[in-house]
Amino acid sequence: MADVSYKRHIAKTITWRVVGTIDTVILSWIISGDPFVGLKIGFAEVITKMSLYYLHERVWFKINLSKDGRVLESRKRHIAKTVTWRFIGTMDTMVLAWLISGDPLMGLKIGFAEVITKMLLYYFHERVWYKIDFGLLDRKKP
Predict the structure, then answer these.
(1) C-alpha distances in angstroms, 101 versus 4, 113, 116, 128, 129?
(2) CB 91 within 8 A of CB 51
(3) pLDDT tens per residue, the chain (142 residues)?
(4) Reduced to 3 states, what is the DSSP secondary structure of residue 4?
(5) For tag attachment on the chain, is the N or C end more exposed, with fewer CB atoms within 10 Å?
(6) Are 135 and 5 a contacting pair, CB within 8 Å?
(7) At 96, is the secondary structure helix, strand, or coil?
(8) Cβ atoms within 10 Å of 101's Cβ, excluding its own
């Protein structure tokens, strides 16, 4: 199993948050019709999402889904991580959008729009990071 440093998880957290925040701002602006609502939701998410994402990375690092004791580094693992992260991220977005806009329907609309865009973006983010050795002390490539 590759030994993953905290630096890698922090770097992944930051790069994902940049991608995710841009997506949230654009979707929130389009759905609400107000660029300031989009910016408020996007910037509120920076704090909540970075904390949640880091915890998600740490939990998934400890999860072993293989049969022979080695960590399963495959597309299946990345898809599973994508689904669990999207659930957490969507719930956070819906609550923040509701609180900021004052409209629960706005929170639902923004949350559901993000499900599609963020799952695609997150999957490709995971695939890119899978190819990067940053923060890996000992990596055995399949």
Answers:
(1) 39, 16, 22, 34, 34
(2) no
(3) 455 577 888 898 889 889 989 999 999 999 999 999 999 999 999 889 888 988 998 898 887 666 555 555 677 788 888 889 889 989 999 999 999 999 999 999 999 999 889 889 988 998 999 888 888 776 655 5
(4) strand
(5) C
(6) yes
(7) helix
(8) 20
Q: Which long-range contacts (CB under 8 A, 24 or more apart) does 30-38 make?
A: 31/106, 31/109, 31/110, 31/113, 32/101, 32/106, 32/110, 37/100, 37/101
Which tokens is 106 given? 């706005």
| Partners of 4 in beta bridges | 136
* Single-letter amino acid, residue 45: E
